[in-house]
Amino acid sequence: MSPITRWTTEPEPAAEVAQIARDFHWFQTLTTERDVILAVDFNYPPTSPKMGPIRNLPDIVNLIPAGTLTTLKASGQGFSSWYDHLYVNGQATTEATGDD
User: Fold this and answer.
1) Mind giving me the DSSP string for 61-86?
2) How far apart, in Å, are the Cα atoms of 73 and each of 24, 51, 76, 81?
3) pTM of the model
4) What are phi and psi of 49, to 5 degrees?
5) Torsion angle of alpha carbons 15, 16, 17, 22, nearest 10°?
6) How far is CA 6 from CA 9, 40, 47, 74, in A?
7) Which is nearest to 54 in space by CA: 1, 6, 97?
8) Residue 41 and residue 85 in contact, taking contact as beta carbons nearer than 8 Å
9) Domain range annotation of the chain
């Protein structure tokens, strides 16, 4: 398993999403190890068109169940948005599926 830590200075968040998708793909082709985890908070739900570069990666799986609210409300009482994401390659990361 290979963790990736990356901070960007991209002024446009959509460009940041595209760059991180390229980084994720690059890390998977760097060695024979394809078990890479991407944990991110882009302030977009995964269904947003801006998340397309990540959604379109081969065999990508978001481990956070659809519709799960992950962002704390400003008042601190409950959750408000599905903005946090935990992505893996579903074929390479069999621990995530329970098929390992």
Assistant:
1) EE-SPTT---EE-TTSSSEEE--EEE
2) 30, 22, 5, 8
3) 0.75
4) -55, -30
5) 90
6) 10, 10, 22, 26
7) 6
8) yes
9) 2-96
Residue with tokens 């704390």: 72
CA torsion sign for 92, 37, 63, 85 is negative
Per-residue pLDDT of the chain (100 residues; tens, 9 = 90+): 555 555 555 567 778 888 889 988 888 888 777 788 888 887 788 888 989 999 999 899 988 888 888 887 777 788 888 888 888 888 888 765 555 5
Residues pairing with 84 in the sheet: 41
To which residue do tokens 């990666």 refer?
A: 57
